[in-house]
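Researcher: Structure prediction, please.
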Amino acid sequence: MINSLVGAAPAISVHGLSRTYGTGPAAVRAADGIDIDFPRGTWTAVMGPSGSGKSTLLHCAAGLERPDSGRIVLDDTDIATLDDDALAALRRTRIGFVFQSFNLVGSLTAEQNVALPLRLAGRRPEAGLIRDALAAVGLAERRRSKPRELSGGQQQRVAVARALVTRPDVLFADEPTGALDTGSARAVLDLLRRAADAGQTIVMVTHDPVAAARADLVVFLRDGRIVDRIAGPDVREVTDRLVGLEA
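Model: Predicted structure follows.
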């Protein structure tokens, strides 16, 4: 097993994760017995060549897909064993997810989008909480704007605020800067760095060595297996490892 960072207990642990898509000769084994702990209060970047299994790991760990076998343990709960209703409730309260495509509701304002997870969980959003969440991502003045009135970087920051408003155990991010220009990407990465420094556990899939170098730990996958990791990464080291895997 790739061990967690020294001294940090896992926020979520993956044990023996396997996932195959398709059947027969066309079957693809996207995850092949993955074992990993994601340390509490740290930021882990997951990288690898196309088809390495990084998105499968992320989606299974976040409860968006079910593994064929293995355990995904959040505190004492194996989320792989939950039924659909229990899994949906857990995703609304204990897991945050940021998509590359933002996934904001176009008919809702920024503050309504941020409040949405709370409403879906049956909680009445406090106005101060929503305002604080938007202020934390630098968008307090755009709370009444709809997604079409915001830049891509601003939309992604709204998406991050929405994912964090429930104070999730783990924030998962799937290529959160992939659709952004350099300046917007830097702003989103700064936001994630501040969240991690404040104790938020973050797991991010990325293809970008610059984004990965902002994390505390980079984990590399190939052919559905973890093959390497770097603690305290820098851009050059991440780039060299990634090029080596793709070669």
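Model: The beta strands are 10-21, 28-39, 43-47, 69-74, 77-78, 95-98, 170-174, 201-205, 217-222, 225-231.
Researcher: Thanks, that helps.
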